[in-house]
Amino acid sequence: MLAGSIVPVTDRTMLTKKFTDYFIPTVNVRYERGRLHERVQGNETIENFLRELYFIVRTCGYDREDHMILNKLYKGCKTVLSAENCSWTAH
Q1: What is the pLDDT of residues 10-41, one digit of tens each?
Q2: CA angle, residues 84, 90, 91, in degrees to nearest 5
Q3: Dist. CA 85–CA 57, nearest whole Å
Q4: Helices then strands (H, E): number in the chain?
């Protein structure tokens, strides 16, 4: 068979995997975690800062995204937050 020739795919699972591998980009988790940890609140409202944190944390691969958001709010927010203001209950 010639290099680069098209091979017929009869298995639906394999076809789905090939499309997924081709069209869905892989995420660089280290880069995304670095973005999250470097992110601090600039001249923006707390709502916009929180929205951006939620957007970034989805690509970081953490098991407990809500804990990472609370940590980031506690450390990177201009608005006064303390551990007493945050809900640190275990689930």
Answers
A1: 778 888 888 888 888 788 899 998 998 888 88
A2: 140
A3: 21
A4: 4, 0
CA dist 30 and 49 (Å) reads 21
Residue 75 identity: K
CA distance 46 to 85: 15
Contact by Cβ (8 Å): 82, 75: no
Question: First-to-last CA distance in the chain?
Answer: 56
The residue type of 61 is G
Cα 57 to Cα 55: distance, rounded to the nearest angstrom? 6
pTM of the model: 0.59
Predicted confidence (pLDDT) per residue in 51-82, tens digit: 999 999 988 888 888 888 888 887 777 665 54
Q: How far is residue 6's CA from residue 83's CA, in Å, rounded to a whole number?
A: 59
